Fold 2-dehydropantoate 2-reductase.
Amino acid sequence: MRIGILGAGSIGLLFASYLSKQFDVTLFPHRLEQSDLINEKGVTLQTLDSTITSKVKATLDKEEFNKQELIIVAVKQYQLANIRSDLNNIHKSIPLLFLQNGMLHLKLIDHLQHESIMVGSVEHGALKVNETTVAHNGIGLTKLAPYRGEITSISSLLNLHCEYFQFTTYSDYREILLKKLLVNAIINPLTAILKVKNGELIKNNFFMQIFHDLYSEIIPLFPELDSKNLLNEIIWICRNTENNESSMLKDIKFQRKTEIDAIVGYIVELAKDKNVRLPLTNMLYGMVKGMEKGGTE
């Protein structure tokens, strides 16, 4: 199976590393410099036990899109607008798999004409070390569900045999995206503002109180979710990734744009539509936006 991966950040590099063991993978980075380095050095995967380099092709040639049998879209949500025309030019018979955080990317997906579109929730911890190296610092699952078409269109991907990189499938895409949305909406802004690793949110009693207050404020917006089980799941994630820094904290530290709009911004807009007040959520949203922009526009 020929798999193209749009985006060569932490998730793009992670997927390229594991999928290249079984499939013909082509990475589509944004910059020529990174593409050249990947072609020269391959992609290196760092785990707790080993460091492995795999030969992976990289190109900026958009004509290569239509030579793939699956396109995995691994750019951040706010970068999707920049590749909208590229996605429209991919042949409609080629399945697409979107791996963005939040829910805003569903608006873009609605306008695509492709026969098979999947969405996924990535629970792995990954850190881009440099242009060709990714550290796999948290083993999880990638949860997939069909948005349009049948999940069988990517059956080859689902048959990947790898102990530390597994896929599970669901029939309801909204459930897996909502759960990931709530996880990110709690962990990401709090760790970014408090400048702490994930585990501190449940180790520090004061932080834990804010954690619970934020969750209690948001969860009534989503009555379809099991509030108690989801709370326990988020606490488990904090414990399981206690030494990890959230992606939003990393973005703030390195003065990059965050995904606050795709995650918390989505919840803020949903609350406005339902005429629900979210004072704590709105405050955290404003704080991250202020930090992201340095307080200026």
Summary: The longest helix spans residues 173-194. The CA atoms of residues 8 and 64 lie 16 Å apart. Residues 2-171 form a domain with the Rossmann fold fold (CATH 3.40.50.720).
